[in-house]
Amino acid sequence: MIKKMTINSIKKAKGVQPLVMITAYDALFAKLLEPSSDMILVGDSLNMSFAGKNDTLSATLEQMIYHTNAVCQGAKNSFVICDMPFGTDINSEEALKNSIRIFQETSADAVKIEGGEDKAHIIKHLCSNGIAVCGHIGLLPQAVRSEGGYKVKGKSEEEKAKLVKDAKAVERAGAFCMVIEGVKAEVAAEVAKSVAIPVIGIGAGKDVDGQVLVFSDMLGFFEEFTPKFVKKYMDGALLVKNAVKNYSDEVKSREFPQEIHTY
């Protein structure tokens, strides 16, 4: 049996062993990913991966609860984090109410909140009420429309200073770790050194405390484009297409089913 990570073991990993986080949205893939993952993130990116949307903003709390339940069912020994979807953490009370729903209706171990210094008071409120929180700073997918696109952060001294302030505010508020996304590598490294909790990178270079990728990106299922920070570990789309083509050909030629597939 896989030994499940805890908040303490995640914190203790900093400076010792890089942490592996990966997204999952269903029981089937969660079970496949569990043996090699320290944490599974049920990301609001599910509406991009599953629903073909252009951004994450349309994900609802009900969707996140449904998919988090599926992931928890498939990966019973994983530390599971549920994204707080857009509009569900606009103030402390709303965030607490919605986080309580996630904790009561799923087996999630934590929630993830986008934002730095501006969201610190909300993170503190959740942590003081029994909700474990993973922070998220840098490029914020939920702010993509207000910022006019996905823009890399840390390109100026001012942005670097803000990222360090954000990270320290998230840590002081009680988060046990944080994601840093779309940040210049040398700046992300400085941010990681500025706090005592793990900083998990995505598009933020290797000198942080771990990495997270969307499973459909790293397995090559998403064909439209490949972000610069993604490494494809297999060509999943081609494998699936070839397998389905083989099935189709065998059905049409009556090669399938054979006697061993027949009652």
Overview of this protein structure:
This protein has 263 residues and is an alpha/beta fold. It has two domains: 7-232, Phosphoenolpyruvate-binding domains (TIM Barrel), CATH 3.20.20.60; 236-263. Helix content is 40%, strand content 14%. It is built from eleven helices and eight strands. It has helices at residues 7-12, 27-33, 46-49, 61-74, 92-105, 120-127, 144-147, 157-173, 185-194, 215-218, 236-252, and strands at residues 19-23, 39-42, 79-83, 110-114, 133-138, 177-181, 199-202, 210-213. It has an eight-stranded parallel β-barrel, surrounded by five helices. α9 (185-194) links the parallel β6 (177-181) and β7. α6 (120-127) runs parallel beside α8. The longest helix is centred in the middle third of the chain and has 17 residues, at 157-173. The protein is globular and about 65 Å long. The chain starts with 6 loop residues before the first helix and ends in an 11-residue tail after the last helix. The model has no long low-confidence stretch (mean pLDDT 96).
